[in-house]
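Per reviewer request, we include the raw input and output of the structure prediction for the construct analysed in the revised manuscript.
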Amino acid sequence: MPMLNVLNGGRHADNNVDFQEFMIAPVGASSFAEALRAASETFHSLKGLLNRKGYETSVGDEGGFAPRLRSAEEAMELLYLAVQNAGYKPGADVAINLDPAASELYKDGAYVFHKSGGEKKTSAEMIDFWADWTKKCGEFVRESQIPS
């Protein structure tokens, strides 16, 4: 199963996204060839979305796009929309995976979002943050719509 790094932030990109890697995995494909096709179509769908929104499509250190987005949440919304626009169902056909590199955010007992404004979160607040994100992502999948 290929897993492709499609949006970069953190130390892998010179942008304002704190989380390091946003990836896609074509989990619904029945063969490697189909998986690679779905991943490629989703990648190009994402590039088109970024272009239409006026974002740069230069790439970060590991090959994912590295635009200056409004937030990491916008990155997730763009990925869901890219999957849908490529003709796939988020979560069922193409999953979205994260490697936020949270250890890179941790300093002096708190998680610090340096690139997006300096907000600090305790470990308990990070747990709540991830729980909220999981809930929102589930809602995106169930509704098959991304907020504009």
